[in-house]
């Protein structure tokens, strides 16, 4: 299994798909390859993040940077600035609704801060079509207890 320095998670929920997330993934992959980063950066389509009004959504780990309203031109900039140079693209960060303050990290967003996800704890973190990713996140542990 390959070890990547960064994982780029692109929302694959219905709202984000209708907003162009498939084209964003294509653009990310093309620009990652053009910058010879394909062995360092993994792009994963995830399930819905739950913030459809902010989509398409792109989250980059290990930082947890949460980009919203991303389009294909933004995807090029994310590769050039964030993934290549390590600079966050601030204009794409989610803004807190009351203060308009930018929230750079996924874990600090008010929408998620008070949530305790149980059944959907991996939603937005793994590819919902990947059995390997599900198992890596302790999927099927309850079955092992039978």
Blueprint of the fold:
Elements: E1 6-11, H1 14-18, H2 21-34, E2 41-46, E3 58-61, E4 65-67, H3 72-85, E5 94-95, E6 102-103, H4 110-113, H5 131-136, H6 141-144
Parallel strand pairs: 1-2
Antiparallel strand pairs: 1-3, 3-4, 5-6
Descriptive account of the structure:
This protein is an alpha+beta fold and about 150 residues long. The protein has a single domain, classed as Glutaredoxin. The chain is built from 6 helices and 6 strands. The strands form 2 sheets. The protein has a 4-stranded mixed β-sheet with strand order 2-1-3-4, with helices on one face. The model has no long low-confidence stretch (mean pLDDT about 85).
Number of individual domains:
1
The strand count comes to 6
Q: Classify the secondary structure makeup into a structural class.
A: alpha+beta
In the sheet with the most strands, the strands line up as: 2-1-3-4
SSE sequence, one letter per element: EHHEEEHEEHHH
Spans where pLDDT lies below 50 across 5 or more residues: none
- Please name the fourth-level CATH homologous superfamily: Glutaredoxin
What's the CATH topology label? Glutaredoxin
Provide mean pLDDT, rounded.
83
């Amino acid at each position: 299994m390959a070890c990547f320095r960064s994982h780029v998670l692109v929302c694959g929920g219905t709202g984000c798909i209708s907003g162009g997330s498939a084209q964003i993934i294509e653009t990310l992959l093309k620009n990652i390859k053009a910058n010879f980063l394909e062995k360092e950066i993994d792009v994963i389509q995830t399930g819905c993040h739950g913030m459809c009004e902010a989509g398409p959504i792109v989250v980059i780990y290990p930082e947890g940077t949460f980009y919203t309203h991303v389009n294909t031109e933004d995807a090029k900039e994310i590769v050039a600035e964030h993934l290549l140079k390590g600079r966050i693209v601030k204009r794409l960060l989610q803004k807190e609704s009351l203060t308009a303050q930018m929230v750079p990290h996924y874990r600090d967003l008010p929408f998620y801060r008070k949530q305790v996800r149980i059944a959907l704890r991996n939603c937005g973190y793994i590819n919902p079509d990947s059995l390997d990713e599900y198992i890596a996140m302790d999927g099927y542990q309850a079955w092992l207890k039978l």
